[in-house]
Amino acid sequence: MRNNDTLSEKILNSIAQEGQIIRKNYQRRLPSNPSKDYYYMLRETPNAETVIVEYGFLDNAKDAAKLKANYKDYAEAVVRAVMDYKGLKYTPPKGTGAKYYTVKAGDTLWTIAKNNNISVDELKKLNNLTSNSLTIGQTLKVSAGSQTEPPTTTPPVETGDIYYTVKSGDNLYKIANQFNTTVNDIKALNNLSSNLLSIGQKLLISKASSQPTETTYTVKSGDTLYGIANKYGLTVDELKKLNNLSTNNLSIGQKLLIKNNGSTAPTEYTVKSGDSLYRIAIQFNTTVDAIKQLNNLKTNNLSIGQKLLIP
Predict the structure, then answer these.
(1) Domain 267-310, architecture per CATH
(2) Annotated domain spans of the chain
(3) Considering the chain, what is the average pLDDT of its residues?
(4) Residues 204-240: pLDDT tens digits?
(5) Which CATH number does 214-263 carry?
(6) Are the CB atoms for 116 and 99 separated by under 8 Å?
(7) Confidence of residue 2 (pLDDT cuts 50, 70, 90)
(8) pLDDT of residue 152
(9) Are 144 and 171 in contact (CB under 8 A)?
């Protein structure tokens, strides 16, 4: 109410650059007094532009592991966004190997990519850009950097495991996109604490599945439908439909039927106002290309009410 949403939008997009799944930036008003912020921290911080950043969740092992592996990258993303917002030069931490470029007047994605020996597509993927638009002062990652040594531990090889050997020009985002997975999942599988890669490094992309196509889960104290669904790669609606639930209420000891994400049919999604393919892909932990391919889309244009199949 006192400021615009530019800072929060920059922070959100900067965290997305590091591979974290993002939701949205928003502001809530105090019901009893709409001229005030809903959150006490914001209400009681006068004369300063204030935001609350939610980096992720700790209520399940998978999300907690993502935060443990990436918290430094997420925190640095906020620093980068604030420097961008204030128009100050950003200097990355020493030893990361990553390189950044600050957009100047007259710059285009093509000239920046050319000057840094990468393609426009690689530049856009490095920065999760969905358009060719740039703003003066914007900070772009032009190199993901490379670590001097591959990880000292290699996951045991099992029949059906999928591995990938890092080549020149690779980065985690590019590899994740190629195999229709996420940066965080690759990092968790390989115990990586940063996004740095080295040529010739062997990455585990996915492990052979030994789980049955269907299983059950017993509700414990503190469980929620969201937490259970997220743990098994489902949406709350899918979990409710699978168990014929009409409410979100659970009881301790209740048995829930779980179906692994790999065996579910595509989800149908109805496009709403403000949606984009990028936001929908982030919401469902997939990629823009995967959605376009499944729906035979030739462009990124969407219309309100349009039905999309989500892989």
Answers:
(1) Roll (3.10)
(2) 1-88, 214-263, 267-310
(3) 80
(4) 887 754 444 456 788 888 888 887 877 776 778 888 8
(5) 3.10.350.10
(6) yes
(7) low
(8) 37
(9) yes
Task: Count other C-beta atoms under 10 Å from residue 85's C-beta.
Answer: 17
| pLDDT for residue 82 | 92
Q: What average pLDDT score do residues 173-178 get?
A: 82
Tokens of 58: 């700790």
- Contacts of residue 153, defined as CB under 8 A and 6 or more positions apart, other chains included, come to 191
